[in-house]
């Protein structure tokens, strides 16, 4: 991943974070996805009084991507105001695995400028993926 692309994703994720709807936790998260076509989509977390209906920034970005007709993640960045770079929750890791590959770059960052580069495979080893479904049919 080129340095310019990485910086653009981080910038978009930080901008998305500012749009978060977090009246309960006050914990704003932003995410930005680059697709295999080079397009970029953003998402922020959106809370709900019924906490189970809250949607994370990463999933919001994925849903934006799919709503715009794309289905492959080339890279993703996630940003929050945390003491260390933020990491996606388990549900988001599974959703990201649905649309990415094991070696898809994931940039974890915080608003203080710390960042860590990892991959979807490192975040969710042994992910349950589409190919596993065909094994069940045999």
From TrEMBL:
| UniProt organism field | Sulfoacidibacillus ferrooxidans
Q: Name one GO molecular function term.
A: cytidine deaminase activity
A GO CC term? Answer: cytosol
Q: What is catalyzed by this enzyme? A: cytidine + H2O + H(+) = uridine + NH4(+); 2'-deoxycytidine + H2O + H(+) = 2'-deoxyuridine + NH4(+)
Protein name stated in the entry: Cytidine deaminase
Q: What is its EC number?
A: 3.5.4.5
Cofactors? Zn(2+)
SUPFAM superfamilies documented for this protein:
Cytidine deaminase-like
Q: Which residues form the CMP/dCMP-type deaminase domain?
A: 4-131
**Its biological function?**
This enzyme scavenges exogenous and endogenous cytidine and 2'-deoxycytidine for UMP synthesis.
**Family that this chain belongs to:** Belongs to the cytidine and deoxycytidylate deaminase family.
Q: Which residues bind Zn(2+)?
A: 56, 89, 92
Provide one Gene Ontology biological process annotation: nucleobase-containing small molecule metabolic process
Q: Give the matching NCBIfam families.
A: cyt_deam_tetra, PRK05578.1
Q: Which UniProt keywords apply?
A: Hydrolase, Metal-binding, Zinc
What PANTHER family does the record point to?
Answer: CYTIDINE DEAMINASE
């Amino acid at each position: 991943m080129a340095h310019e692309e990485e910086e653009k994703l981080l910038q978009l994720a930080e901008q998305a974070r500012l749009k978060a709807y977090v009246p309960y936790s006050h914990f704003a998260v932003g995410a930005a996805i680059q697709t295999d076509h080079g397009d970029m989509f953003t998402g922020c977390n959106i809370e709900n009084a019924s906490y189970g209906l809250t949607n994370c920034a990463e999933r919001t970005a994925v849903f934006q991507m799919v709503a715009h007709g794309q289905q492959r993640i080339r890279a993703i960045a996630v940003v929050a105001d945390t003491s260390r770079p933020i990491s996606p929750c388990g549900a988001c890791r599974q959703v990201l695995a649905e649309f990415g590959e094991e070696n898809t770059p994931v940039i974890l960052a915080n608003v203080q400028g710390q960042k860590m580069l990892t991959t979807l495979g490192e975040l969710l080893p042994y992910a349950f993926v589409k190919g596993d479904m065909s094994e069940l049919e045999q």
